[in-house]
Amino acid sequence: MSAASTGPDSFRVIRHEPVCPECGSSDVITEDVDMADGTAETAYLCRTCGEAWPLACVTEWSVRP
Ligand SMILES: [Zn+2]
Q: Which CATH number fits domain 17-61: 3.40.50, 2.20.25, 3.30.1330, 2.60.40?
């Protein structure tokens, strides 16, 4: 795991693998894509099947018992 730790421990940036979650292809590029809410965001785009998914997501690192 990466030792790069910035910011508070309550948040964690989950970086997604540049591998298509749909077809498993690594032929992946980054593109600005239009999101459902009308904003544009840089995302991975699979050149094999056209699937797009976020580069990373920030998760609230909630500690549950
Ligand atoms: Zn794909």
A: 2.20.25
